[in-house]
Write a structure and sequence with these properties.
Blueprint: H1 5-10, E1 13-21, H2 27-31, E2 46-55, H3 56-61, E3 78-86, E4 94-100, H4 101-105, E5 112-117, E6 120-121, E7 131-133, E8 146-152, H5 159-162, E9 191-194, E10 200-203, E11 206-215, E12 222-228, E13 236-237, E14 239-243, E15 246-247, E16 261-269, E17 273-281, E18 306-312
């Protein structure tokens, strides 16, 4: 079946607020432990937007695949997205990725074929004229510049599904890696980052306020964000919000479960210190303390405690 953008717009438009995060977000901190392969992202390989488009479940119904289907009569179990974009990793072929059919046909997953971003038509950089949005999953699966969709029996065999974006333990290196031993990464882990200060910041003694974001994959809300102003010895609970001046409560209907949660915390400091942030999601998943324990050769999924080094400037110095 061939569908035009006009055909897509005849289907009910679904709006979803969702955060897209590169699996390599915060890779630079991981590379300080040991060299990794990948773009040197700091804390900003992430974004939050209001996406508009047709639900993938509605599109699949047009070809006879009902809601909540996990397998088709011909044995299809996965939905593969093919991009117009060509890449060297596919030997000049198209970028592609897939998700399980049950995720695509479950309306609550809110997977959409988006043609709008923040109320405006997609621009070219963000995937014009049509892209996939898979909320709660690493950005690599939200294929841009969508060309075609295939229903396939096995997960996509593309490079970025089979030979990249997989989570390996620290002992694996480029000499002993076996890509077939790990599944493609989908959900991203719970994450929080302080955005209002540089990694090393000079301040005057007194009250200091920090702002940042927290997010967890799979639609898991943020139960708590803890901030320490003394390197992890003591903690204060940050205030959380998605909309200005409206307190955030995880799993409330008024909350956007696929979107990041912003936080704010403040305390007094009098000497050089380290400010640390860690988040806990509604499944009680918490960020690991040290990046060394989650190091991996591709530098993905660095969700360790985020640390800011503070140097105080005293008037008599």
């Amino acid at each position: 079946m061939e569908l035009s953008i006009a055909d897509m717009k005849k289907l009910p438009k679904h709006i979803v607020t969702a955060t897209l995060q590169c699996a390599g977000n915060r890779r630079t901190a991981m590379s300080k432990v040991k060299t990794v392969k990948g773009v040197g992202w700091d804390v900003c390989a992430i974004g939050n937007a209001i996406w508009g488009g047709a639900k993938l479940a509605d599109v699949l119904e047009l070809v006879g695949i009902p809601n909540l289907a996990s397998i088709t009569p011909l044995g299809g179990k996965h939905v593969e997205f093919i991009s117009v974009d060509k890449c060297k990793e596919e030997n000049g072929g198209p970028y592609k990725a897939s998700i399980p059919l049950i995720q695509a046909t479950t309306s609550d997953s809110e997977v959409i074929l988006a043609y709008e971003m923040n109320g405006e038509p997609l621009n070219r950089d963000h995937g014009y004229p049509l892209r996939v949005i898979v909320p709660g999953v690493i950005g690599a699966r939200s294929v841009k510049w969508l060309d075609s969709i295939n229903i396939i029996a096995e997960e996509c065999q593309g490079f970025f599904m089979q030979k990249d974006y997989k989570m390996f333990p620290p002992k694996i290196n480029w000499e002993n890696i076996d890509w077939s031993t790990r599944r493609p990464q989908m959900d991203f882990p719970v994450q929080s980052v302080i955005c209002s200060l540089e990694d090393v910041t000079k301040v005057k003694p007194g009250k200091i306020t920090v702002h940042g974001y927290a997010v967890s994959g799979g639609g898991r809300g943020i139960e708590r964000v803890d901030v320490s102003f003394d390197g992890g010895k003591t903690w204060v609970e940050a205030s959380r919000y998605q909309k200005t001046e409206i307190p955030y409560v995880a799993d409330e209907k008024s909350s956007d479960k696929w979107a990041w949660v912003l936080f704010k915390a403040e305390d007094e400091i009098s000497e050089n210190t380290e400010i640390v942030a860690k988040a806990v999601d509604i499944a009680a998943n918490v960020q690991p303390e040290n990046v060394e324990f989650i190091w991996n050769l591709r530098g993905i999924l660095n969700a360790s405690w985020h640390r800011i080094h503070i140097h105080t400037e005293h008037p008599d110095n």
